[in-house]
Amino acid sequence: MSDRIPLMAGNWKMNLNHLEAIAHVQKLAFALADKDYEAVEVAVLPPFIDLRSVQTLVDGDKLKIKYGAQDISAHDSGAYTGEVSGPMLAKLKCTFAVVGHSERRQYHDETDELCNAKVKAAFRNDLTPILCVGEGLDVRKAGNQVAHTLAQVDGGLKDVPAEQAETIVIAYEPVWAIGTGEVATPEDAQEVCGAIRGRLAELYGQEVADKVRIQYGGSVKSGNVAAIMAQPDVDGALIGGASLDADEFVKIVRFRDQ
Ligand SMILES: O=C[C@H](O)COP(=O)(O)O
């Protein structure tokens, strides 16, 4: 039996300004109870400009909800216009930094090499990276989803030592299931999440592999979350669209009741 605590993280993507962010986190805080936080780690991943507002609310009201950024610069400071650094995120008491979301890989040409540098930047600044991996539709149709995804895991973790690797979160997000309503079957999710854990065991040993939380992401909703979470190698979800609806997100956090 795994003692990995599930992580339910709401990736708001480019939605909710800083005022809407406050209202949304207040709704979540009102709805979530201590018993929710005992069973599940709950996090929101707002746009950068919302983070200060979220931090102020979480600190001021001593909320148990965690938060993090949707991206992180590979650099800690300097002339990198438009970037936000690990030290800046750490100063805002972020817990997480998403690395290599498929939308960054697709629209911003982020390579495994850059993702690896961002993973290291997160660790360097005591942030937990959520490394996103997953295949597109063409790769899935060719049956190469496992090999493709494991190559991204290898790339993201290159030269990352075991003591850091055991704390990473890996989010398996089949690109064809993101925002499409096309959810992977629980068996599809388990096939790749299980393979990811197998690769972690090859790279770092079973003890480290057993500590890593592997999330599924792609059209997760209250209606499908329980079946996905029933898979032995799925330890949470990275939720996009459904996380913007506070009631729906709370139902997902309470996946055991669905
Ligand atoms: O980061 C979240 C994923 O991209 C999933 O998004 P979605 O739940 O809207 O399909």
TrEMBL record:
Gene Ontology molecular function terms on file: triose-phosphate isomerase activity
Documented EC number(s): 5.3.1.1
Pathway membership: Carbohydrate biosynthesis; gluconeogenesis; Carbohydrate degradation; glycolysis; D-glyceraldehyde 3-phosphate from glycerone phosphate: step 1/1
Catalytic activity, reaction form: D-glyceraldehyde 3-phosphate = dihydroxyacetone phosphate
UniProt-annotated catalytic positions: H101, E173
InterPro entries linked to this entry: Aldolase_TIM, TIM_sf, TrioseP_Isoase_bac/euk, Triosephosphate_isomerase, Triosephosphate_isomerase_AS
GO cellular component, one term: cytosol
PROSITE patterns according to UniProt: TIM_1, TIM_2
Subcellular compartments: Cytoplasm
Gene3D superfamilies linked to this entry: Aldolase class I (3.20.20.70)
Pfam families in alphabetical order: TIM
Keywords: Cytoplasm, Gluconeogenesis, Glycolysis, Isomerase
Main location: cytoplasm
Amino acids binding substrate: N11, W12, K13, G179, S219, G240, G241
CDD domains in the cross-refs: TIM
Subunit structure: Homodimer.
UniProt similarity note: Belongs to the triosephosphate isomerase family.
Stated name of the protein: Triosephosphate isomerase
Organism, as annotated: Streptomyces malaysiensis subsp. samsunensis
